Amino acid sequence: MSNPERACLPALRKWGLLGALLLGTAQGQSAAPVPAQESAICAVSEDLPDVRIGGVSRGAFSLRQSGGDFWLQQDALRPGEERYGLETVRCDDLPFTRLNPSLDAQYDPEAQVVTFAPRLELLPTRTLSVSLTPVTPEGVTSLPLYALDYSLSAARFSGGGLAQRGSARASYTNGPWSAQLGVAEAGTSGQPVEVGVSASARYQLDPDLSVEAGFNIPSLLTGSLAGFSGVQGQFSGQIGRTLDTFTVDVPLGGRIQLSSGGRPLGSWTVDAGRVVFRNVPLVGTSGAVLAVIEDPAGRREQAQVYTFPTAVLAPGNYGVVAEAGALGGAAYARGLVRYGLTPGLTLDAQVGVRAGEVGGRVAVTAASLDQVISVGITHHLDGLTTAATVDYGGRLGRFGLGLGAQIPLGDLRATRAAASVATELGGFSTGLSVGYDPSRLGWYGGAQVAGSLTRDVRLSVAGRVGTQSSTFSVTLGYQPNDHWRAAINTVATANGPAIRASATYQPTLDQQWNLAYGAGTGYAEYRRRGAAELAVGAGTSGEVNATLRGTLVSAAGRVYATASRTDDISVVLETGVPGLAIYTGGLFQGRTDAAGTLVFSVSSAGAADVRVDVASLPIEIAVKEASLPLTGLTARAVKVDWRANFGRSRVVDFQGPDGQEAAYGTVVVDGERYDLDAFGTALLPVSVSVLRGQLSLEDGRQCAITLGPAQEAVQCD
Known about the structure:
Layout: H1 4-26, H2 36-42, E1 50-53, E2 56-60, E3 63-66, E4 69-73, E5 85-91, E6 94-99, E7 106-108, E8 113-116, E9 125-129, E10 140-142, E11 145-156, E12 162-174, E13 177-188, E14 194-206, E15 209-217, E16 228-237, E17 241-250, E18 254-260, E19 263-270, E20 273-282, E21 286-295, E22 298-307, E23 318-327, E24 330-342, E25 345-354, E26 357-367, E27 371-381, E28 384-396, E29 399-408, E30 416-425, E31 428-437, E32 442-452, E33 457-466, E34 470-478, E35 484-493, E36 496-508, E37 511-518, E38 521-529, E39 533-539, E40 544-555, E41 558-562, E42 569-574, E43 581-584, E44 587-591, E45 597-602, E46 608-612, E47 621-623, E48 627-630, E49 637-641, E50 646-655, E51 666-669, E52 672-675, E53 681-685, E54 691-696, E55 702-707, E56 713-715
Parallel strand pairs: 1-8, 9-20, 42-49, 50-56
Antiparallel strand pairs: 1-2, 3-4, 4-6, 5-6, 7-8, 10-49, 11-12, 11-40, 12-13, 13-14, 14-15, 15-16, 16-23, 17-20, 18-19, 18-21, 21-22, 23-24, 24-25, 25-26, 26-27, 27-28, 28-29, 29-30, 30-31, 31-32, 32-33, 33-34, 34-35, 35-36, 36-37, 37-38, 38-39, 39-40, 40-41, 42-45, 43-44, 43-46, 46-48, 47-50, ...
């Protein structure tokens, strides 16, 4: 052997064994007989190769070869790998196991390496059941929050008239409870100012159950944005769909993190083998069951995508929405129930009363992945007397089809119907439609073609003809990059042609310039999003507009100014990095303030994916994960501590004793080694205390260094 110590090891063990035998004889004791096979194996010379399984080193272990078999020190195998070995012998108090021939182990005596690949058929299979239990993401805590949402706008019209509008809404949130009080006013020249007041209190037991009582608040079932006073409630029962089995192979053992539709299901540390997860909950109508495996070979992902029709509920699932009180000054009550009958069939029933008139609707919806049809009967609801309704949408090969009809049972001549077909032709989206509406347009038809002429230029042509009017339009759009876009549109009607043009310049994510021209006048507007949302604009005909809106938030001992909230759960995100652009669901939410904090809102209806743009991060900022899923939130306001996800570094210039750049040297600080570039610089973590270490120059010289918290250049002590 090339290693003298390894060559001496068998001899030393033999002498040790001989000494033990002599000592036992001298004491009048007889040694236990050694089986012939064990004696023969232990008599074979011993090596200490590096053992590599699946390309991953286990370290150096003893190896003996006998009769074409490999006898490997048993300690090289880990739990779950017991079937990799067959018989076991002991040599000098070390257990050796004969490697299973099916492993096809290879030994390179020159390189002193033993290699073989994992064999799943020799590893155990474990079965784990999974359940969908509420999991609060790490670093997320509920907190009480006070907020004031405000909006102010003023306008001067081309004729000299003035208009203004303002609103303020104060709210308090703590856990599942929230309450708010709002006031809004609006006025125009020559008209008295109108003032409206609203108030509500809400209790959110969990994401599937909420109750709210309010005055002059939006209606859940009619689409009215205000005017409802009373009690509202929403409740849903989620039996959910499941995946029977999801198999993950972990041939080296490791850690598995499992999620479904972005919602964490749990994590497990397992021995080498195969893991079968049973009854995996499937969250939402589409997504993926994702396993993130971390083992000695690194990190990898395994996923299984699932998709279900969005128009129907899972069997046994249901949703209930109800409200009762007054709407528009009249007594009002209405309720909606949806129930999943089968995997492709859902029943919808709605009943309501307003000002003494009772109405309702019953419909059945059938759906597959590419077809959906709904058939129902409506009575005195949504502007209909008594009518049958049919709606269909689906795909037939390359063609998308649509059909809708409302058939009044008491007057068939008032039937309204529409049909459409769409497809792709030569890279262009094309569509045809035809319809009949006796109360408005009579017969009408339309056609549209849209597509890209080049990478930057897009063309859209549309026409519509009817018994009462016809229009034809051509739109040419141009977008050379993410900052610029422009469009010109020509419309021809019975009154003659008209030309409109627009252009948008967005130099940064939080500001935008808009220009528009039409009907002989031009208009320019500037928008900015920061601690508030600001929009100011002016036109060539004398009109001027200005809008300011935002939110003041008091939480966790601080007051924050942020852009207006649009969803029902407030998030106080702490990153520790100032000026960081934050996105949720692909939408820009704003930049963190000087303390690295941003306040925004997300919807309780589904999972929110908080994300940073890694490509735009400064070089001195390191990030562990680019996104953070927020799921299962029940509190109406939460604080998310994401600071551990980010690390800040600084560029430090190192110099030798003579003041020269320490090019291509190395520096060790707090046990961490950093390589220097051609200019003697390196990125080191920011520290609030004095750091001490050692600088090694390229020529081998070494010297001590002391680095202060704000120091950007350091010379050997």
